Amino acid sequence: MPLRVQILMYDGVEEQDFIGPRDVLGHAERAGAQVQTTLVRPSAPGKVTCFFGTRVTVPTAWEPADADLLIVPGGGDQLIKSPDALRNLVRAQQAGVIVAGVCTGVMVLSAAGLTAGRPCTTHHLAKAELAAQGGTVIDARVVDDGNLVTAGGVTSGIDLALWMITRECGPSIALSVESIMEYEQRGIVWRSS
Asked: Tens-digit pLDDT profile for the chain (193 aa)?
């Protein structure tokens, strides 16, 4: 059974926050991993305008419980201001979905209450705010607390995706992706015991 991954897209999403993980997951699939990645939008299929103006057509509406892993990229406040999106994040995690945040996407998870009292990280400029909202901030590139996985700044989404491939599909697939991308995972992956 494939690892079903959703990447949550919305107006204002930071380009690198979603495309880095998407690239890693795509290469993992080509390297033989059983991974199925879908870009999803909170309300319905349609276009989103990213942080730097890139327009992306998102083919699928978000069904919160219809994934094994949900990646929430950063880049805007639209999701933080959406009570429906925040409720659906909680619903996804309650349904057994691993919820992962990249950069300020972690602040969306915080607004949903998912980081309260839990080890997590985010972009260095938002760490104080994350701590003030109840997160236990760890100074690491990726923080894995089981069903909550968070990553630091913009490019750390690549490392988050490589870590998730290592964790869910095995290190040989992750090494193959690193070779294809000519990229090596950087920084520390902090794991809860």
From this structure: 899 999 999 999 999 999 999 999 999 999 999 999 999 999 899 999 999 999 999 999 999 999 999 999 998 788 999 999 999 999 999 999 999 999 999 999 999 999 999 999 999 999 999 999 999 999 999 999 999 999 999 999 999 999 999 999 999 999 999 999 999 999 999 999 8
From the list 50, 103, 120, 169, the catalytic residue is 103
- Determine whether 103 is an active site residue: yes
CATH of the domain at 34: 3.40.50.880
Domain count, the chain: 1
The model's pTM is 0.97
Q: What is the CA 19 to chain-centroid distance, rounded?
A: 11
Q: What is the DSSP string of 59-99?
A: -EE--TTS-SEEEE--S-STTTT-HHHHHHHHHHHHTT-EE
Question: Using N-to-C axis directions, what is the helix angle for 15-30 and 156-169, rounded to 10°?
Answer: 30
Q: State the Rg of the chain over Cα.
A: 15
- E strand or H helix at 8: strand 3-8
Phi, psi of 18, deg, nearest 5: -100, -35
Q: What range defines the domain where residue 9 resides?
A: 3-191
- Residue 89 has which token pair? 């994040």
